[in-house]
Design brief:
The protein has 246 residues and is an alpha+beta fold. It has four helices and twelve strands, in the order E-H-E-E-H-E-E-E-E-H-H-E-E-E-E-E.
């Protein structure tokens, strides 16, 4: 495991229903933060219960670990994961082609190349464990993705370097460990500022669809809780959950 970060374990499986489900099954016996990768997922899932289509050759992986974190602190780690994904992808494709779409997607030339899904367990002040699922279209563009705000693309389709899922996972795991070190030393505001540096459409008009309403406004920032802040015709709006369109 050349360049694999110290203090993290790695499990690579041929086939699994989903790496998120496998992570939950292994949570009780967890000794170290562990990356679980599968060559094939039979039931991968994305946000809001949507299926995640991952042809073989793309990355399907989940990090499961036990951070000392409140539920809100754990949720904000989606931005940490996005920063790590951006840094890892920028090894294989020009960084100026990449951008981060709130809350947890990575765009490549304006199309979705990677997504992040968080799940946590625990009812107390600190989560029992946190899973961060990451899917990256490395070499194949998924087919059958319907009604997506941002159609899929892949690294290979955009002229990126060829990389195996195992190779990319090593790069990503190192980038994630770096982000965790930044969080420990500088706090969430550093993670937030790094994320905003690479945010898609910052300062431009976008639309957030919450399920109850469509809110359009200038993308001003994300706040200390990771909420999207739009400057609308009636003033600033802080939005905790939505699908973003532009």
């Amino acid at each position: 495991m050349e360049h694999w970060p110290a203090g993290y374990a790695r499990v690579i499986l041929d086939t699994v229903d989903s790496t998120m489900s496998e992570a939950a099954r292994r949570a009780a016996s967890l000794a170290l933060p562990t990356w679980i990768m599968a060559q094939t997922q039979t039931g991968g899932r994305g946000r809001r219960g949507k299926p995640w289509i991952a042809p073989q050759g793309n990355l399907s992986a989940t990090l499961i670990y036990k951070p000392i974190a409140s539920p809100s602190d754990a949720a904000r780690r989606s931005f940490l994961a996005a920063n790590a994904l951006y840094a890892a992808l920028a090894i294989y494709v020009p960084a100026d082609k990449l951008s981060l779409k709130w809350p947890n997607d990575v765009l490549l030339d304006g199309r979705k190349v990677a997504g992040i899904l968080l799940e946590a367990s625990g009812q107390g002040a600190s989560v029992d464990w946190l899973s961060i699922g990451i899917g990256v279209n490395l070499c194949n563009v998924p087919e059958g993705v319907e009604n997506a705000a941002f159609g899929p693309t892949s690294l290979k389709a955009n002229g990126g370097w060829d990389v195996t899922p195992e190779g990319f996972l090593t790069t990503l795991a190192g980038a994630f460990a770096t982000q965790e070190a930044k969080l420990a030393q500088f706090g969430f505001n550093r993670i937030r500022q790094d994320w905003l540096t690479n945010a898609a459409r910052l300062g431009e008009v976008i639309t957030a669809k919450t399920g109850n309403e469509d809110i359009s406004g200038i993308f001003d920032t994300i706040d200390q809780d990771g909420n999207l802040v739009l400057i609308t015709a009636t003033g600033p709006r802080s939005i905790a959950a939505a699908e973003v369109y532009f």
